[in-house]
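Lecture notes, unit on protein representations.

Consider one protein chain, 31 amino acids long.
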Amino acid sequence: MADRLVSFEQDGAIGIVTLRRPEKFNALDIP
């Protein structure tokens, strides 16, 4: 899981959204 958190941090805003709402991240990942 540590590896995934690092990836989100590099993304920036996406990382915050993913950690705050993992469900929303899935929807954004599709498009």
